[in-house]
Amino acid sequence: MHIEKIEYGPEKEGFWSQVAFGLIILLTLVAAGITGMIFLKILSSDAQIASTRQFIEDVGKLFAYLLFDLAAIIYLYVKGLLQDEYVTTLE
Amino acid sequence: MDDKISFTITRRKLTEILMGLVALFFAGGALASILKYLWPATAAKGDSVEIKIANADEVPTGSVRKFMFNGKAAVLLHMPAGFRAFGSVCTHLGCISYWKEDENILFCPCHLGKFDPNTGAVISGPPPSPLPAIDVVVKEGAVYALKWRDPEYVKTISFYAGAA
């Protein structure tokens, strides 16, 4: 029998981890803002406007920004904030 | 006696909570969009809704503008006699008819149905009945769709179910 148990140690400390944490907060607010813009646009637009190429392009761009924003958050979360993983294998 | 209540939250936990809130926000928006799609807000049946189609100068004589009316494809035509608007869903099998300028007709490409651009009447082809007319008005330089001219007729066309 092979069981892997992953445990986390203490969080990273120091200046750069604080910067990463601040950026994560900022980018999370940006993500919430972009999400709000996307759905406000979708929900408030008339069918006539919502079927135009311009509208679809605008929404597509917002989704792309959101994707990059989330990718940046995940990168900062993993690289800037988390500690190294400790993997304990039990047999 | 120590009556202080204290708790600590790590940055990691806070980040996870914030991301969870954004995910919830996103899911809520997606759900609202789906609900809006399934149950679109419509005016009471037969009411005048005044949907702006275009500015009048954007549709010169001899040109057309597509638009949606009560969830159905429609077309605005600027004929020499004035503006005309019709549901463009063909009454035969529900294809979308379009303006064929060289023949001066509304044309359904599926089975070659032809409609009069002034009245919506069938000129030739298999369509069993005319395209339903939409009342339009020109106001302050813009063209507005008001209502189906004959809502009772629209109710009889299966491809216009729910539109009147």
Adjacency order of strands in the biggest sheet of chain A: 1-2
Order of helices and strands of chain A: EHHHE
Task: Detail the poorly predicted runs of chain A.
Answer: none
Biggest interface and residues each: A-B, 22 and 21 residues
User: What does the largest sheet of chain A look like?
Assistant: 2 strands, antiparallel
Strand order in space, largest sheet of chain B: 1-10-9-4-3-2
Rough outline of chain B: elongated
Mean pLDDT of chain A: 82
Oligomeric description of these chains: heterodimer
What best-fitting shape of chain A do the alpha-carbon axes yield? elongated
CATH architectural type of the domain at 51-160 in chain B: 3-layer Sandwich
Strand percentage of chain A, roughly? 5-15%
Count of DSSP strands of chain B:
10
CATH superfamily of the domain at 51-160 in chain B: Rieske [2Fe-2S] iron-sulphur domain
- Which structural class best describes the helix and strand composition of chain B? alpha+beta
Number of domains of chain A: 1
Q: Structural class of the secondary elements of chain A?
A: alpha+beta
The main pleated sheet of chain B reads as: 6 strands, antiparallel
